[in-house]
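## Example pair
The file below holds two records. Each record gives the amino-acid sequence first, followed by its structure token line.
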Amino acid sequence: MNESLIREFIQFLRLERSLSENTLAAYGHDVRLLADFLFRDSGKDSLLKTTPADLKKFVANLHSIGLSAYSQARILSGLKAFFKYLIYEDLITSNPTRQVDSPKLGRKLPSVLSYNEIHNMLSSIDLSAPNGQRNKTIIELLYGCGLRVSELTSVTMSNIYKNDGFIRIIGKGNKERLVPVGDETLRQLYLFIDGYRVHIKPHKSAVDHVFINERGKVLSRQMIFLMIKKTAEAAGIRKQISPHTFRHSFATHLLEGGADLRAVQQMLGHASITTTEIYTHIDREYLRETILNYHPINRP
């Protein structure tokens, strides 16, 4: 019964909210976590029997196994959407999540790379290796355009407007935006497309996709994560980084250079400017480090 409820919930979200498949999978995962916990904790075999007390114990369990407050809040957000759906469908009469508070979240500053660190990563790539040109292009596009990794894997040839210097991106919630591409990034992109991509026979499901593997299928996010980890190690970078680190670096470096906050918001595809404002906090940290390191009054 639970699995049937979850499938119907996911289908509802797919039709009513046009969410991406990655987001839908995350919602399904969150609800299944609760279903498993209910069965283990109290033998309940139906999510329809969930009480506020069950949810409070579930959240406490998430904390006890070491999940961060951000992860706990994300899971609880998914459960709130699920129980709202059950109310909407008249499957329950009261929403058990109303009595459960989300974990308090501080504003966490994301990790960023310096331009020199990114340059070192790009320089460490062996362009004579089979995937060298591809890997360099991926990093240049992540950093040069501030793309999410899911957006990068979805880039298609037909969505690149070379003469205009823009790429049409399908972002979160299937929202479209035009992202400008700098001349150097565009040059690198076409070095890859014309010199490497053209020699790989694409699978029928990936004919228009830019980034494909040796078998012609769309490159997975996991492969990009692994590639970036190996490239960072080769460049001597010890920070914990991911594809998203380049997006953070893109925004931070633009704002440090004097870019308009709303322009950066539009390029990142943020629905709210408050999300983009976190990068102004990073900028202030940079300014504080500058005065501490270079002002003579702070020198020993």
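Second record, same layout:
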Amino acid sequence: MRERLQKFGGWLAGMVIPNIGAFIAWGLITALFIPTGWLAKTSLGWDWGLITGNIVGPMIKYLLPLLIAYTGGKMVHGHRGGVLGAVAAMGVIGGASFELSSGATGDPPQFLGAMLIGPLAGWVMKQIDTWLEDRTPAGFEMLYNNFSQGIAGVLMTMTGYVVIGPVMSAVAQAFGNLVEGITDAGLLPLADIPIEVGKVLFLNNAINHGVLTPLGTADVGETGRSIYFMLESNPGPGLGLLLAYWLAGKGLAKLSAPGSIIIHFLGGTHEVYFPYVLMNPVMIGAMWAGGIAADLTFVTFDAGLVGPPSPGSIFAYLSLLPSSGGAVAGVLLGVAVGALAAFFVGVVLLRMFPVKEMKDTDADAAIGDAVAHVPGLVIPGSAT
């Protein structure tokens, strides 16, 4: 089981790690330019909402999933597999939407869908090229290659739109409804289990704004503060996870962790730590430990914020602290406890299930072992 988890983590890492720089770039742009970002608090008269709509939103909805899908397809069948993976990912993006029982709707970033259809498209392209190799007339290679890829692109795009996109929509809806059901049942700390899984699948906005913010708004009207505002937005567990990678990680994951800490904890862009869980799925255990420990602390001290923090940075938390001294201590202590729990559990898990060390320039070689164990797949350029 440990070997299989490491191989699966290596496969995901091969799609995620080479694109970490793009995630960090998007995180910096988000922290700076959204209406609640750092520059919006200055005297610059820019249209922050327009910048968000034209740059921040399209980057996370289109650019980042397409990069992951391209990388996944390239892992299987080189550049042609990567191109088909990116084309097919557009179908997944277009076919995914969700609606929660609360009536909220959304269109979450399709990173998981891109991770599914990217390698699949690369495999399809490989099979087509293998079949056509001995059947292509001399002089018609470019014509056959271009049209075979174009036709495959149509078929894979519609597969993403009709099949994978709706499946991802059902996953998003299920996570949102699960969080809502656990919260309604009074098992609030356990809500962190689906919340953290949903977050690393980039369903954080759906869960936060579709489920928790409405509950918190109603709660504030009665008590003046609400714990619901902190269940998803708490920056503590993510901080602990990134610190664990900084201490016990390897390669690019270790080197990029300090920059991600700044963007996540100070800038409030939680999305930058999600790839660190996806590259080694066992690390979701660290997030559960940090989230549940923090939630138990919040409940013990009857802590809460007076409004939803946006973005979920420590500065936003400080600006929304209630007037009650005990509640203030509970909020800050909960953030610290969540960070410590995630850090300690994360270090232990990284020692037991280390991420395969790789550089951004040799990702294909680093995931070679994982690809080699998939039946029917051959690494481009290999001897087997």
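Notes on the second record: Residues 48-95 form the longest helix (48 residues). Residues 47-185 form one domain.
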